[in-house]
Amino acid sequence: MSNLERQTAVERTGDGTYRADVVEDWKMWVPIGGYLTSIALRAAQAHAPSTMARPVSVSCHYLNEAKVGPADLEVTTLRSTDRAGSYLVRMNQDGQDILAALVSAAPTGELSPTLNWQEAPESARPDELETTILDDDVLALMGDEPFWKMLEFRMVKGLMGSHNYPGVEDLTTEEMKFTPRRDAHIRGWQRMPCAEGHKDPWVDACRSVIITAAMQFATVADPFTPPLQFIAPTMNLTVDFHTFHPEEQWLLADAVGSHVGDGILGAETRLWTQSGDFVATANSKMTYHDFSDPRTMERLGKSWFQLTES
């Protein structure tokens, strides 16, 4: 059993109820959304019949900030047939809702064509690239958080070495804050050593969720000049699972920003194997909070997640 399998495991406590242990390893100030969503996936797996051998998608709304420690989950079957299942998962800690997730699942091995309609982008192989070291400003802000020890990056585009933003010499602080100087586009190989050794598609889906979720904010933040002028807590995340490859150490993640406006940022991430199999697609929405806004700084002293309530 891999560490990821243990860290996302749930224990049945009653009819449709489960308990999980939210661990410190997946904290970035607070436990990250991708990890919490993974626990919700495992609760759906525990609740679904064994014929539902693979998840198809998960769509998660983050309702409150989680903390390290026990979490209670309630799973409701919304629809179940021979070919598909739909489940509502709610996570709660100390009487407070943490998230709500819709999970769909299906059997494996059903008859259909097998095609990749989305080709993997061109990239050097991971063994041809050096491990990416986080930029100094990113390290200063979040480099000590345990989450960064759980992944290894080998970037192809974006987040590579020291920041190099063209044409910023004559820009004012306000112009640098609102004028992107690079594309909202990050591409690179990612490896999660704690996930190696598992064979379960549901656990493999957890790996895809965590990797794609982690790319979303980095993608929309990278175009703007450092030091970081804003943060963007995630409102919701949807991940569609196409194929499962637990034997693969490295996955190629390609992430792009979709739109920013009205204080909402959007991003999309896609994952492929080294052989070009399409693994997953993720979309998320985040709320923009400027550090120069006194309300942002006041809430930072209280709760990361309260920023979404501004």
TrEMBL record:
InterPro entries: ACOT8-like_C, Acyl-CoA_hotdog, HotDog_dom_sf, Sec_Metab_Biosynth-Assoc, TesB_ACOT8-like_N
SUPFAM superfamilies: Thioesterase/thiol ester dehydrase-isomerase
Residue intervals of the Acyl-CoA thioesterase-like N-terminal HotDog domain: 24-104
Residue stretches making up the Acyl-CoA thioesterase-like C-terminal domain: 167-282
Coiled-coil annotated residue ranges, if any: none
Pfam families: 4HBT_3, 4HBT_3C
Top-level taxon of origin: Bacteria
Cited PANTHER family: CHROMOSOME 23, WHOLE GENOME SHOTGUN SEQUENCE (PTHR38110), THIOESTERASE DOMAIN-CONTAINING PROTEIN (PTHR38110:SF1)
UniProt protein name: Thioesterase family protein
Organism: Microtetraspora malaysiensis
